[in-house]
């Protein structure tokens, strides 16, 4: 035990010395001990040589790693080795052809034989069908040729007929007379139509157009008739559409509005008549011309009701 402890103590001292852990006093004490202890001095020399060898080995390893030529050679050797192994494995696989594989190939070969017979049967059937179609087609073509020949034989021959030139002249004279008479009749009809147009009164046609325009509805107002309005005023009369305006329309409503209530009457030409500051009931009794009229009872901020009436 004493020798082991002494060796451990020497190793610890050598390690601390090599690592530079000694202080100045400890270093002087260690040097004096080296002079007096030859075993310690010998161990120290061994450690120094070992450290030098390790350093040299590390330098060689580093140089080897940094040498690219050696790396390339090593890679080539690795590739060659792997390729040889793969080739050997492929050869083994080729050689490992078992009896089961041979039996399987035989079965496949036997199963392919009936398919050849089937193909031959289908091919022969197709030839037979093609021959039948060709035979039928030739018969149809022959029958069509026979019909064409019969038709050519049955075409009637053109017969030349002698005509008298005097008869031809008589016919042309009759046609010219008929054409002249027809022209005279057309001219008379045109004169009659011109006289009728002159006798017509242009004012009648104008009045008809005006009547049509007076009853022509305005799409803009028609679309708004069915729109619902939200108002604090409840209109009791009149109804939205009055078919025949005779004497008057009574506008009667319930509710109070802080704003002024006014009425607009619009004709088919979009001409507007306005009645302002109205109170319920309001009687509209103005005489109007025939036509269609729209009315709007409203305030500045809301529409109370819309409607229309006809004057016939």
Write the layout of secondary structure elements.
Layout (H helix, E strand, L loop, with lengths): L1 H18 L4 H13 L1 H29 L1 H28 L3 H55 L11 H35 L2 H13 L4 H7 L8 E4 L3 E2 L6 E6 L7 E6 L4 E4 L6 E3 L6 E8 L4 E9 L1
Parallel strand pairs: 2-8
Antiparallel strand pairs: 1-3, 3-6, 4-5, 4-7, 7-8
Helix pairs in contact: 1-3, 2-3
Describe this structure in words.
Keywords: Coiled coil, Membrane, Transmembrane, Transmembrane helix. Residues 40-107 form a coiled coil. The chain crosses the membrane at residues 116-137. The chain is an alpha+beta fold. Among the domains are: 2-66, no CATH class; 218-311, Immunoglobulin-like, CATH 2.60.40. The chain is built from 8 helices and 8 strands, in the order ααααααααββββββββ. It has a 5-stranded mixed beta sheet with strand order 2-8-7-4-5, with helices on one face. The radius of gyration is 65 Å and the shape is flat. The N and C termini lie far apart (145 Å). 4% of the residues are buried. Mean pLDDT is 76; it is low at 153-178.
């Amino acid at each position: 035990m004493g020798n082991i402890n002494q060796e451990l103590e020497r190793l610890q001292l050598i390690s601390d010395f090599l690592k530079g852990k000694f202080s100045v006093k400890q270093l002087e004490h260690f040097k004096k001990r080296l002079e007096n202890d030859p075993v310690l001095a010998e161990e120290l020399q061994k450690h120094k040589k070992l450290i030098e060898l390790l350093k040299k080995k590390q330098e060689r390893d580093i140089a080897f790693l940094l040498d690219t030529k050696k790396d390339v050679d090593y890679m080539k050797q690795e590739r060659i080795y792997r390729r040889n192994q793969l080739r050997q494995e492929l050869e083994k696989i080729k050689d490992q052809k078992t009896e089961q594989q041979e039996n399987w190939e035989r079965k496949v070969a036997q199963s392919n034989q009936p398919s050849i017979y089937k193909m031959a049967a289908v091919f022969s059937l197709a030839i037979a069908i093609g021959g039948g179609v060709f035979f039928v087609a030739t018969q149809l073509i022959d029958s069509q040729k026979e019909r064409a020949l019969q038709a050519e034989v049955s075409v009637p021959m053109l017969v030349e007929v002698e005509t008298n030139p005097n008869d031809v002249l008589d016919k042309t004279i009759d046609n010219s007379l008929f054409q002249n008479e027809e022209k005279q009749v057309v001219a008379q009809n045109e004169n009659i139509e011109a006289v009728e147009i002159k006798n017509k009164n242009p004012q009648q046609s104008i009045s008809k157009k005006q009547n049509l325009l007076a009853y022509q509805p305005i799409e803009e107002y028609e679309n708004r008739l069915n729109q619902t309005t939200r108002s604090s005023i409840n209109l009791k009369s009149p109804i939205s559409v009055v078919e025949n305006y005779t004497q008057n329309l009574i506008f009667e409503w319930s509710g109070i509005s802080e704003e002024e209530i006014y009425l607009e009457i619009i004709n088919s030409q979009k001409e507007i008549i306005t009645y302002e500051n109205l109170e319920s009931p309001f009687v509209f009794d103005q005489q109007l011309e025939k036509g269609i009229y729209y009315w709007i009872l409203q305030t500045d901020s809301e529409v109370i009701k819309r409607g229309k009436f006809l004057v016939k």
